[in-house]
Fold these 2 entries.
Entry 1:
Amino acid sequence: MRYTVLNKGAAMINDGKVKDKNKNYEGLLEKLKFDEERLTALLKMTQLKGLSEKDYIDYTLEECVRLTRSKVGYLHFVNEDQNTLSLFTWSKDVLRNCTAEKVPHYPITEAGIWADCFREKKPVIHNDYSNNPHKKGYPEGHFPVYRHMSVPIFDDDNKVVSIVGVGNKDDPYDDSDTRQLTLFMDKMWRIIKQNRADQLLKESEIKYREAYNRAEFYRRIFAHDMRNILQAIQGSVGILPYIFKNIEDAEKFNEMVKKIQTHVFRGAELIKNVCTLSDLECSEELEKIEVISILHSAIEFVSEKSTDKKVNIKFENKLENFFIAANDLLLDIFENILINAIDHNENDQIEIQVRVSKLKDKEGSLIKIEFIDNGIGIPNNMKENILQGDYEKRSGSKGMGIGLTLIHTLTKSFNGSLYIADRIKGDHTKGTNFILVFPEFT
């Protein structure tokens, strides 16, 4: 019988080779498992829907902390000036364990080595952070950092838009970690940019649609009202030849001239209101405006233009003066309310009460201005359309569209509120109470 005698040293070498192969095999399996984990996370990241931008960034940062086997993470956005940072978010463990003050804005020149990736425009690793001679130390309450890695995220114009960092991995960070972090955060930025562009496009479409509806509303109401005005003028002018046959009838002649003047005035006011509405987006900034004098001017102007009707405007004011944040267009609100109250009134005697009072709420003092008339009133469904800014449903409203739209739009632009009530509760045919409420400027 033959026996094979193995050399002990050779056996040990062969055993070592097997262990090395097993170790390499295990390392390869670990790498494949990690790559699969990373790809799964990337796929999920592209499929997330319905999250706010903040929630999306928080999710992505937590994934980066997990995939790099880190304990903490942060993200700063770089401001447009490329000189300051804005802290956007920390990972959850930081928020739980760090009591240091979170400074929202930070000059890059004052930032420590954690911002080196911005300065060098490339990923930076600090595997011995605590002994780095260039670190500036921690603020009070900050958690200790012993390893740190950060990467810059670039926009298409090669500007750094954010700095992302992770820290305190058990093993040293390496180039594989920087690739993972860069890949994830670059993908996050591309998705955020696309979402922002989509949102801007959506907002632009909404604004375009609203602008189109407004323009169409103005066109229809303007044409409707101006046609009525011109027909009234034409009718009045057509009667003049018959009056001229009996020139002695001066009273009828003067009455007809006044009607023509009234219609011309209405046309001029209509054109003015349309121009004001069209220019609202370019109107001047708000300033401190004293209101009582503006009210007196509106009452005086409307009274002078309404000589063909019996108009009694009673001004009840319990305040000497007060101020709101507005501009010169405040006069247009008051004039339009008063003109509407006169034009849409079939009584022989037109009564308008203007009341001014002060209210209090939890945010401060409010000024309440009421215009109470005895006119034809406004039905409840039309009140709702006016207050909701419904351009479609308000057209054809007996010529009140432009004026009411102007009142509503201007009041909102002055941070005020418009309310429309019946003069006698429950019976809109007995007149209207237009109520304006503005924050008092103190």
Entry 2:
Amino acid sequence: MMLDRMIDADERVLWSGRPHALLHIVGNPLAYLVAIIWLLFDLSLFGTLRGVETFAGDPFMAISAPFMLVHLMPVWYVFGSLIYRAVTWHRIEYALTDRRVYHSSGIFGTDVSSLELREISNLAVNVNPVENLLGLGTIRLTPDTGTGSGRRRRTVAGYRLKHIKDPYELYNRIKKVSLDVSTDQLYPNAYRPDENPGYRTRYKDK
């Protein structure tokens, strides 16, 4: 596991996994429907205008071809994203430890982000119809947030573990571990076992 290099020496991995390959690579199926409809529309438009020449008598292709390439950007984006996800899937890993949640990704190198257990809020499980058929689900660890205002306002997706096996089991485990660790950090002396009341008590996942 690539994340092994990022985890502290005294940190213990409680769970690790990665998103289901096919679901991650394919993404949202509706995007392909929109892209195909857009492509067919542009091909129809291109065919309708094919015989037209510009006012200067230049060939139609001189202007129409660059325009069509730009107008097909949504199609390039959808299928380019498919290729990107296929190339980067092997770098995506998730890990739950007794301190935080890790997420690795990247294309040329490995990018790692982490979420402290005490930062987990609005924990939820979302299962779409395809995930339900495969026994998978997506766990949301933090809510979506909005940035900016007016026309510049955009939504930033929260921290998620996507398309993973046994989502409800992992949900319950994260809920318990985050509560235990957060409580221990807030009230360290009262909740530590008698055999080791010091700061570096090892978390017991039971």
